[in-house]
Design goal:
The structure holds 2 protein chains of 2 kinds. Chain A is mainly beta. Helices cover 9% and strands 32% of the residues of chain A. In chain B, helix 2 runs parallel beside helix 7. Chain B is globular, with a radius of gyration of 22 Å. Classes of the chains: A mainly beta, B alpha/beta. Bound molecules: flavin-adenine dinucleotide and zinc ion (ZN).
Chain lengths: 101, 432
């Protein structure tokens, strides 16, 4: 089971959250060409390694946040709420090693 | 180099004389150069190599795999084949694969145990029934045996299903597809490996591709001078067994597709998710068809040995980790018992996972890319086993003719930037 550290609620089973997938910056819809927009919509890095991704704390605080997860080992680090520069999580929520139990 | 032909008489004579069997394919050392290097020794890579040799006379080919042949999805899938897809493009494509599967045992001289037992996709809601009707009509127009049947006919085909109205997800009907069934997946891997080997194709196991070398490209995200990316041209691969030069490199690595594509500087519309499956102890045969339930996220069939094989939809979180989870087993058991309350005493023997390369439209990504000589045959998600033969055949043609055959033209990588997706979700999200 993946224990996901919500910056507000602390570690929770991944089943209590909604997975938002790879996090990447959105082009400006006013100026983006159709090709740029579709690249944003469909193409993914999908690395085997560290990945910055988004989660939605759907049955907790109902906020979106980002964290880094290693897609091979399941390690998690640096949960961060949008707008804040550094992780705002409590100590117990950050740097959870070996998130897959 | 040709392999000894398998036959009933041969089996008898070898048995009587207690003779050992010859190796099925050679253990090959990588040469310095090939005309084509295929990365990934699953059904897709091996079939591509076989059809390159048999249909186009291109035999200076290597198939390299970082582990052993069939160690990816090809040896982990639940072996279901069918052609009752949703889009005309999908139906035509998968139907060609069934044709090739139908004659495979004789064509490749190896029994792949095709059990044409019928395939039933249950509808538990009005909207599901609507999709089934839609699919049946698309299928019929293309000559596919596919129709919507009612609960009583469902019961007749699979008496163990609970078709009463008192369940949480009552069975309102099903899309029934008699030509669907199961095929022994290992046998398919071995058949293509043996046939490709007999043409002189080198099958190289424990050979991991570490990089793809390119020249002339605009450069990758990490290094603008590495010659990869759009406008570039492939020159070879670097592996743990040394460098191999080749003007053509084909990515047939399914769940690992993005990691290989990254080496050529080509970004894919793919995320890798695990799909889990499980098998029970063997019991007497009681389930004659393949049964799929989209609403309950589960499907089941019974093997010739009598085990029930279960599968589900992919795990929601993207990962390259292939460990099974308890959450899967619990959910699976609950859902299966809703369909078949009678099997509550059966015990699970094993569960496992494989990696699935999911695309946004549930259709594959095939053919040439913006890097010359770098081709992809990926995006197989949870449905690529049945597509192995046709993919190999068409990819071989794409390589030999340097063009896109009609059957796979809809599945190009460029469809994602051009906005011409081929939406198969309604036919492929659960029912592999
Ligand atoms: C549990 C499960 C059930 C499924 N059920 C069905 C089903 O019922 N019907 C159906 O049609 N499909 C099904 N599928 C999907 C199907 O198994 C796959 O789509 C198909 O096997 C893909 O075949 P492939 O040859 O493209 O790739 P794979 O068989 O996955 O082979 C890819 C190979 O690439 C190799 N590789 C990776 N990286 C490297 C590298 N760097 N260098 C060298 N080699 C590398 C791997 O070792 C692997 O052997 C299922 C999948 C799973 C996991
Ligand atoms: Zn929360």
């Amino acid at each position: 089971m993946l224990l996901v550290p919500c910056p507000n609620c602390g570690p929770r089973s991944s089943q209590d959250l909604t997975y938002g997938g790879e996090s990447h910056s959105r082009p400006d819809p006013k100026t983006a060409t159709p090709e740029e927009w579709r690249t944003y919509l469909y193409l993914r890095d999908n690395p085997s390694g560290w990945l910055v991704e988004t989660w939605y704390c759907s049955s907790g605080c109902r906020r979106w946040f980002k964290l880094e997860r290693h897609t091979l080992t399941g390690e998690l680090r640096d949960p961060i709420l949008p707008g804040s520069k550094t992780g705002v999580a409590s100590d117990e929520a950050t740097n959870i090693q070996g998130g897959t139990k | 180099m040709a392999n000894a032909k398998y036959s009933a008489a041969g089996l008898f004579i070898r048995g009587a004389r207690k003779k050992t069997w010859p190796r099925v394919w050679r253990e090959a050392e990588p040469k310095k150069a090939y005309d084509v290097v295929i990365v990934g020794g699953g059904v897709h890579g091996l079939a591509t190599a076989y059809y390159l040799a048999s249909n186009h006379g291109i035999t200076n080919v290597a198939v390299v795999d970082k582990a052993y042949l069939g160690s990816g999805g090809s040896g982990r899938n639940t072996a279901i084949v069918r052609s009752n897809y949703l889009t005309p493009e999908g139906v035509a494509f998968y139907d060609r694969s069934l044709d090739l599967y139908n004659t495979m045992s004789t064509d490749l001289n190896l029994n792949v145990m095709f059990s044409e037992r019928g395939h039933m996709t249950l509808a538990h809601t009005d909207s599901a029934l609507r999709t089934m009707n839609w699919r049946a009509e698309v299928n019929k127009l293309q000559g596919i045996d596919s129709s919507v049947i009612g609960p009583q006919e469902v019961k007749r085909e699979a008496p163990s299903l609970d078709v009463s109205a008192n369940t949480r997800y009552p069975i309102l009907g099903a899309l029934y597809h008699p030509p669907g069934g199961t095929i022994r997946h290992d046998a398919v891997v071995w058949a293509y490996a043996r046939a490709a080997d007999s043409y002189g194709v080198d099958l190289i196991q424990k050979c991991e591709v570490l990089d793809i070398t390119c020249e002339g490209g605009e450069g990758s995200e990490s290094d603008s001078a590495d010659g990869k990316g759009a406008g570039g041209k492939v020159t070879g691969v670097k592996t743990n067994l040394g460098d191999i030069s080749a003007p053509i490199v084909v990515n047939c690595t399914a769940g690992w597709a993005s990691t290989i594509s990254d080496m050529a500087g080509v970004k894919l519309p793919i995320t890798t998710h695990p799909l889990q499956a499980a098998v029970t102890e063997p019991v007497k045969t009681f389930l004659p068809t393949v049964v799929v339930s989209g609403s309950l996220h589960v499907y089941v069939s019974q093997t010739d040995r009598g085990e029930l094989v279960f599968g589900a939809s992919v795990d929601p979180v993207a990962t390259y980790d292939m460990r099974g989870t308890l959450a899967f087993t619990e959910e699976l058991a609950g859902h299966v018992l809703e369909l078949m309350p009678g099997i509550s005493k059966m015990r699970l023997l094993r569960q496992w996972a494989g990696l699935c390369d999911m695309t946004p439209d549930y259709s594959p990504v095939m053919g040439h890319t913006q890097v010359g000589g770098y081709l992809v045959d990926v995006g197989w998600g949870t449905y690529g086993f049945k597509a192995g033969p046709v993919s190999g055949e068409q990819m071989a043609e794409a390589i030999a003719t340097e063009s896109m055959p009609e059957l796979i033209a809809p599945f190009t990588l460029s469809r994602f930037t051009e906005g011409t997706l081929v939406g198969e979700k309604g036919a492929a999200a659960v029912g592999h």
